[in-house]
Amino acid sequence: MAGRKALSGCGPADSEVVVKVSAPVRAALVVLLLVALLVAAGWLLQRRLIYFPDRSAPRLGAGVQEVSLPTVDGLTLGAWLVRPPPGTPDRRVAVLVAHGNAGNRQGRLPLAAALAGRGLTVLLTDYRGYGGNPGDPSERGLARDADAARAYLIDRAGFPAERLVYFGESLGAAVATALAVRHPPAALVLRSPFTDLPAAGREHYPFLPVRLLLRDRFPVGDLVARVTAATLVVYGTADTVVPPAQSLAVAGRAAGPVRVVAVAGADHNDAALLDGRQLVDAVAELAAGVR
Fold first, then answer.
1. Which of 273, 285, 266 is nearest to 108 (CA)?
2. Nearest partner of 168 among 245, 249, 224, judged by Cα
3. What is the pLDDT of residue 210?
4. pLDDT tens-place string over residues 100-153
């Protein structure tokens, strides 16, 4: 415009200010970024750190009946029913087995055979995503799978509810305990139970804020306080996966009569805690009290 000076270019006072960041601050920012990435990965991928399914279809063994379990959300799950062998007195008690977070029902067949040899009928379940089953595991999904297994034993296998024993192994102990709250059994067996999943996860991922991140909680300690059925807790004194103190804490919170069996020197996946004599004897004794 006439009579006015054009604006001049930026002088020294208007130049960009360069902020220098010290090396310690840069290092701290890098650490914060890495922690943020770990937290994000933990949130997005957490179920891959919880569930380790063997998705292959198990091989049917001798004396095993293959059965199907329809769930309320439209899945059909494969499972195995193992009855007492010929010549073994049938106690007419069924044991619903909810296995841990890894493998599939194939690996629990020795347990089923041992319990069937004591006159018990055993239903070996596989969760969604395990053992050739459709779907992906989650806390809600596993609860639906357990409900389907119980419904099979009552509606199709002909066992009354008061003659059912729930057997949960590790993560399966959480599944069995939650089922016992929804549908009380005659008795409950918890093998190597943790108090809740965040407490168990903190043992293996101490660098992550596990309690804040987890969507699947499995609060065994809180739930077992609502179970009045006779409860058996079995754990290994050398368990490196679930600390023995957590299994003892679960036993201490059981609302009903509880028996604790410690298998000396046994780690989480040792044979003694799969189908060992001490375990099988304790389960058979508990089942003998079902009337």
1. 273
2. 224
3. 77
4. 999 999 999 999 999 999 999 999 999 999 999 999 999 999 999 999 999 999
Alpha-carbon distances of 98 from 7, 72, 130, rounded to whole Å: 79, 18, 12
Count CB neighbours of 284 within 10 A: 18
- Structural domains of the chain ordered from first start: 47-288 (3.40.50.1820)
Neighbours of 16 (CB within 10 A): 6
CA-based nearest residue to 236, from 191, 280, 194: 191
Q: Tell me, what amino acid is at 72?
A: V
How many angstroms separate the CA atoms of 133 and 260, rounded? 34
Tokens coding 256: 């009903």
Round to whole Å and give the CA distance between 42 and 211: 11
Long-range CB pairs of 42-50, under 8 A, 24+ apart, other chains included: 42/205, 42/208, 42/210, 42/213, 43/213, 46/213, 46/214, 46/215, 46/216, 47/136, 47/137, 47/138, 47/215, 47/216, 49/201, 49/205, 50/101, 50/137, 50/171, 50/197, 50/201, 50/216
Q: Mapped to the 3 state alphabet, what secondary structure does 174-208 carry?
A: HHHHHHHHHCCCCEEEEECCCCCHHHHHHHHCCCC
Cβ-Cβ contacts under 8 Å for 109 (sequence gap 6 or more): 61, 64, 80, 82, 124
Spatial contact of 252 and 225, defined as CB atoms under 8 Å apart: no
Kindly calculate the radius of gyration of the chain based on its CA atoms and give it in whole angstroms: 26
